[in-house]
Amino acid sequence: MGYIEELRKLVGHRPLIFVGSVVIVIDEEGRLLLQQRKFPEGAWGIPGGLMELGESTEDVARRELFEETRLQVDELKLINVYSGPEHFIRAANGDEFYVVTTAYYAENAIGDLVVDQVESITFNYFHPHELPHTIVTSHKDILDEFLSKHYSFMTAVN
Q1: pTM
Q2: What is the distance in angstroms between the CA of the first residue and the CA of the last residue of the chain?
Q3: What CATH architecture does domain 3-153 belong to?
Q4: Are 62 and 51 a contacting pair, CB within 8 Å?
Q5: Low-confidence residues of the chain, pLDDT below 50?
Q6: How would you label 104-136 residue by residue, b for 16+ Cβ within 10 Å and e otherwise?
Q7: Residue 64: what pLDDT?
């Protein structure tokens, strides 16, 4: 049983604060890796997840990326930290929580992409102008900020 499950046994559905990380992976063609998730069903998002005890946000980003894709990245570059009332979530089972999400991007992941069937339907690389329409709202905000502040700079340098 993980940290979050242990907390839920103690507090039930009451609101909690969770810290998580996501990482946008950019391939050599400038495409962004997105995950089609099982929950919410069929929605696309950025690989990532919630922090376990003793982890840094960078640890979370790398661990979750590896668990979900079997890809590894070295250098993580910060996009932003997202928090506040608009990051309140009520899960289908009644659990309530606020999420503080640290978003990163990384280039040139190593390894062969393998889909974790527990959390994911599939993964796919998308050019920024071809992103799917059904993206998790909070992840859409992260992608929009990344594309406006970081991606245009990256493509201008390369």
Answers
A1: 0.91
A2: 45
A3: Alpha-Beta Complex (3.90)
A4: no
A5: 156-158
A6: bbbbebeeebeeeeeebeebeeeeeeebeeebb
A7: 97
